[in-house]
Amino acid sequence: MRVTIFGSGYVGLVTGACLAEAGNHVICVDVDAGKIERLNRGEVPIHEPGLDALIKRNSAAGRLEFTTEAAKGIEHGLFQIIAVGTPPDEDGSADLSYVLAAARTIATHLNRYAIVITKSTVPVGTADKVRKEIETTLKARGVSIEFDVVSNPEFLKEGAAIQDFMKPDRVVIGTDNPRTQELMRALYEPFTRQHDRLIVMDIRSSELTKYAANAMLATKISFMNELANIAERLGADIEKVRVGIGSDPRIGYSFIYPGAGYGGSCFPKDVQALIRSARDAGHQPEVLTAVESVNKRQKTVLFEKMRRHFGDAGLKGRCIALWGLAFKPNTDDMREAPSRTLIALLKEAGATVRAYDPVAATEARRIYGDAPYLHLCKNAYEAAEGADALAIITEWQEFRSPDFERLKKLLKSPLVFDGRNIYDPNMLSRFGFTYYAIGRGKPLPAS
Known about the structure:
This protein is an alpha/beta fold. It contains 18 helices and 14 strands. The strands form three sheets. Strands 3-2-1-4-5-6 form a six-stranded parallel sheet, with helices on both faces. α1 (about 10-20) crosses α3 (about 50-60), α5 (about 95-110) packs parallel to α6 and α9 crosses α11. The chain is elongated.
């Protein structure tokens, strides 16, 4: 099939590469000429395991192309997929300007029937706006061309996006046209052959499904962090509680790991947008408001533990080693990352940071430049050298089993603030560390 994708960001690139891998001919269109040039040279602007190889293989085979020429893309594709960004406005609502601009561009060059698919995460009612935008532009051109608008939200986890697309849990299709439903089924048939994962519904329900899914997962995280803070004050261990409640199949183990708060490009933005949509519809979403509030507070928990530990001496002039910058492992995405909150608070307190992340250093340089309060290190042990304490903010695999004896010698004092609960408190105590974690009762002093 012939597919055109508007937007060569995270969703657009993963979608384009995976559809091309199934044998489709895909053209990705983007207004950023520099990005298109880099992609045509084989340079992938994001870190996603397996994506580089997928793009190179399908580009070489002629199944995947990148261009700034919108007219070429629109002439090419039966499927016109909109996968542009929807950044939050100041009021928390989703900014649809890029989505509607893509719709206008499609209508400006459209000469035959096409299926226009919104894959960007958008508020309920966006498909109606896209349809109206296309109709208005076609009318201004003085032409009448048949088209359909479909909602097809993405459910890709950063760090596992290729697997999610190739073997999806579900493919949600929002359409009011049986013919379009069958064409969408044909597009996704290579990925749902073993089990029919296609879930067809009306367009507005499809649009809400994406927000509802992310809001539900964010709720589980914030609820678990709330329980962790309670457990800590009651002298209980939240990790034992987690196992106890996760064994209940009605709850399960997914997304019930306490930590330093959620971040990334999806959960914070989507929870805010759903709150705004609810308020615009005349409903006060109290649970969602609490989810966001708890998460904002949770991002400060590790700093507060440091502040209490150092007491009157304070953090001014101290150096903190930071392991992890990305909001989660297997990505370089630092959008809304808890590390950014911690770095900002440490800077404000007069401390400096020595940080290491396996893949996010380039992104950190883009954000912080040559900031004097942040030194980016080449490995975890270099970050720890001479620091007053170690803070763990991202649970990268390589952090899970370090050389504790070496680490103890590198740090000025054997002090660890674990924002992801990746260590056994008793083990660190035996190694002589004072260990602070999330929701694990009283901190264990060095034995």
